[in-house]
Amino acid sequence: MHGSVAAGGASALLAWFPLGLLGLATLGYLGAAGRQQRRGNGWSGWRCALFALGSLLLAVAVAPPVTAWAHHDLRGHMAQHLLIGMLAPLAWALAAPVTLTLRSLPTAAARRLVGALRSLPLRIVSHPIAALLLNVGGMALLYFTPLYAASRHSGLLHGWVHLHFLAAGYLFCWAVLAGPDASPHRLGLRLRLGVLFVSMAAHALLGKLMYGYLWPRGAGHPAEEIQAAAQLMYYGGDLAELLLAVALLWLASAARRESLLTFPPLR
Amino acid sequence: MTSPRPTPAAAQDSRRTLWLAAMAGAGVMAAVDEIVFHQLLQWHHFFDRATPAVGILSDGLLHAAELLAIAIGAFLLIEQTQRRRLVARWAWAGAFLGMGGFQLFDGIVSHKLLGIHQIRYGVDLLAYDLSWNLSALALLLVGLALYRRARRLERG
Fold first, then answer.
1. Considering CB atoms only, which of A193, A246, A253 is closest to B79?
2. Nearest-CA distance from A208 to chain B in Å?
């Protein structure tokens, strides 16, 4: 009896752990931004607001009541997925945390971080096509194999799935936007728009396959629940990817205006 | 900026406006088709069981293309407006040509040639096909009239 109560207490504590981590990350970002401001380097308040927004969305997604809902209801799981894998990463990517880190670190450490960003493994996974495969492949693997059912019974696996969604979602936004954050790739706008196009199509396709064939199977979700979750994935994914497209176009047009200002056309 | 704009630049603005508006128009028509017929009326479905693999794959691609066309078209048109280089009459012509063009493409190529889906199942299709493609033609004719008017006004 005692043991189970203690275990319950420990797992309850563990449930709040991601929230604590998020709070620390947010405080770290805001503190670093404040220091840049005081040094006169300037750091946009919009970026701070976007980082805080990303943290808030993640906090909602991993808050214990939502986690509990997601555990027994596929709609809850899908809402979590949208927040962790799509909306929060977009807000975070627009807040340029890598650039802020590079500016805040001492020179030697910043050099090492730049070296790590340029290292081959990171260059490979942060290529838009690789990020797309990680993103879509991860989703396909989760919903079309027994992985989803397995992740419901293992807390550790469940945690890894969320971490994968967050990391792959962030990599994807980072790679497709190619800014404002410092990143190892600055690829052409057409390639990045093409990758976004494939991602939108793949997301819509996966949503329809789930709706039509009632995946994920073997997890005991009733058909109406799976269909509602698939619709959430379809429309929610649309919204997130539309926001990503608008952010991409906005950044691209701002970059073009800036380059016109700094480099007058040769005549 | 105070000097009158040379004619090639004006012609470039007109062409750009026309194409951007046509792209947005085609996207809007595709979205209307998808929202009204796929999702509200459910005449042909969100997921069409009658034509499995090719049907949903093409639907997914259409969906992504339509969203991006609306987003890119609208965004670049707004940018064009901000730079005061939008030519409104060319925009209207492009929008109608885009809408009618998509509608006719859908009515002829997707419904009839490829047979990905029909407008409705279990009914006589003739009236549906006729009204679908005639409305497409009407949009195209409006677009064509606007196009000719814009060209006439540009030539002075």
1. A253
2. 6
Which residues of A touch chain B, with CB atoms under 8 Å apart? 193, 196-202, 204-205, 208-209, 211-212, 231, 238, 241-242, 245-246, 249-250, 253
Amino acid letter at A132? L
The pLDDT, as a whole number, for residue B3 is: 45
Reported ipTM = 0.77
Q: Check if the beta carbon of residue A142 is closer than 8 Å to that of residue A151.
A: yes
User: Domain residues of chain B, as ranges?
Assistant: 8-155
The two structure tokens encoding residue B56: 């949903």
Q: Do residues B55 and A209 lie in contact, with contact meaning Cβ atoms separated by under 8 Å?
A: no
Q: Based on C-alpha coordinates, what's the Rg of chain A?
A: 20
Domain limits of chain A?
Answer: 2-262
Q: What's chain B's Rg over C-alpha atoms?
A: 18
Q: How far apart are CA A148 and CA A86, in angstroms?
A: 19
What the block records as the tokens of A62 is 């991993």
Instruction: Give A175-201 pLDDT, tens digit per residue.
Output: 999 878 877 777 889 999 999 999 999
